[in-house]
Amino acid sequence: MAQDAGELTRRTTLGVLAAIVAPLVVLAIVDALALPAGATGETSPFAAAPVVISTLVAVLVALHVVAVSLVAFVVGAVRR
């Protein structure tokens, strides 16, 4: 629990940085799993849809985990 405003500011800044870095890490992972440079990428929409949906769900889950933890941290740090 933060004892003063300076500590609360540092913790909040770290939480915000984590909220910025986490989606970038997820994006890097998704880019790494993308098609190789020589692949044509020609697939049917029925084959591509599950990949797009699962990627969207993974990204949204990651963002919500970071957001919930950040909100919980700030609320816990402000309460006494």
Account of the protein in words:
This protein has 80 residues and is mainly α. It has one domain. 78% of the residues lie in helices and 0% in strands. The chain has helices spanning 5-32, 45-78. The longest helix has 34 residues, at 45-78.
List unreliable stretches of 5+ residues. Answer: none
Report the end-to-end length measured between terminal Cα atoms.
8 Å
Provide the structure class: mainly alpha
Provide the number of structural domains: 1
Number of DSSP strands?
0
Major β-sheet profile? none
Shape: elongated
The averaged pLDDT comes out at 78
Radius of gyration: 18 Å
Helix content: over 70%
Percentage of β-strand residues: under 5%
Write the topology of this structure:
Blueprint: H1 5-32, H2 45-78
Name the descriptors.
80 residues; mainly alpha; 78% helix; transmembrane; membrane
Describe the structure concisely.
The chain has 80 residues and is mostly helical. The protein has one domain. The protein contains 2 helices and no strands.
